[in-house]
Here is the input.
Amino acid sequence: MKILHISEESSLLLLRGRYLKSLGYEVVGTREVGTAFAMLRSGERFDALLLCHTLSEAVKLGIAGRARRGWGRPLIVELYLAETPVTGGIALEADRDFQPQMERWAESLTGLPERATRETEDALLQTH
Here is the structure.
């Protein structure tokens, strides 16, 4: 599963990227919002977007909208702390929910590397 992880905080980008890679995910991370938009416009495909709580509401909505225009129904995982999730994607509280949810998601994908994004999102929603 290929994840585009966007965070303006380099330490969170690095830590989450390492953690997700240890679970078997392919992770492309960027701190630059412009780079994220360029990747989405280029047609590069990702199975999921991971939007950090450090991104502004406008940036989250812009990235989610661009992904939806290009992919239809992308899997969007939005991390939050105190702010209200805005993308309509799967909202995970960054400190409490992120780690256990990503582990459950990885376990559900074991042996199914080409599993459809819609099925993966449904499984994630059932465990959250």
In short: Confidence is low (pLDDT under 50) at residues 112-117. The first helix runs from residue 10 to 22.
